[in-house]
Amino acid sequence: MVSPYILIILIICVVGFFALFFHPAGYRTLAKLSGYQSFFLCALTGMCLVLLGTLLYLPFGKGAHLFAEWAFCVSWRPFDALFEKAYPTAAIPSWIGTFAEVAVLSCVIALVFIPKKASDRKKAKVKALLNDSESPEFLELINDSNEFGLPILFTLSDRKVYIGYVFGVPTSDYNDVKIIPLVSGYRCKETLKFIPVTPYVTLYKEKHEKDENYTLNKYSVSLPLKDIVHGHLHNFEDHKRFIELESDPSKHSKGTISKA
């Protein structure tokens, strides 16, 4: 039979692994570690949950046992019966069953901190990625685009430019960015000014007038991260205003911007 103390360590690690694996932020942290680092993280997380479970078990667990004995005249200790069937010839201490009940309660506590809705889980994954020092490039920019509802202007290494919306906010590592382009063009070699060429939006409007059920996915463009040299949010109205101001220097403000 496995030593009770080894069994305790195993249960604590399983509780910690359960909590980390099913939580978006914990899963990403766990995936980055290996070997003894994962073991210690699971053990530490499990220990914290088991301690919290013990504090809750002392008043409520004992109360549940007393209520079962009073109401149904039975001793409600399911894990004791389970261990007796699994090891009929072994003398198993009674506290092992109690510890197993605490472990189950600890897993229930872990479930409280795990997002249940798909939207909440996605937000938690994005937040975990944003807080990660090794998060993929342009992730914060993509998140800002999704939050403010503005497209992103991507400049590639060959001076090709795409302005469009990224397909949602990535929730895992990625090597390319998939966008629905609104406008594409290039940057002038001498001035690096953006020169629009292809107005995808015009085509989208024409397609929509003919068929309201058509999808934009067929016009998606995949941009490899290694080819993107610059990216920023793009507001078409502000861009027009910038062009007007650049053409008439007399309208330039000579004041300073004060932070609110």
From TrEMBL:
Keyword vocabulary terms for this entry: Membrane, Transmembrane, Transmembrane helix
The organism's place on the tree of life at top rank: Bacteria
Residue ranges crossing the lipid bilayer per the database entry: 6-27, 39-60, 92-114
Keyword Transmembrane: yes
Protein name per Swiss-Prot or TrEMBL: Uncharacterized protein
Organism for this UniProt entry: Paraferrimonas haliotis
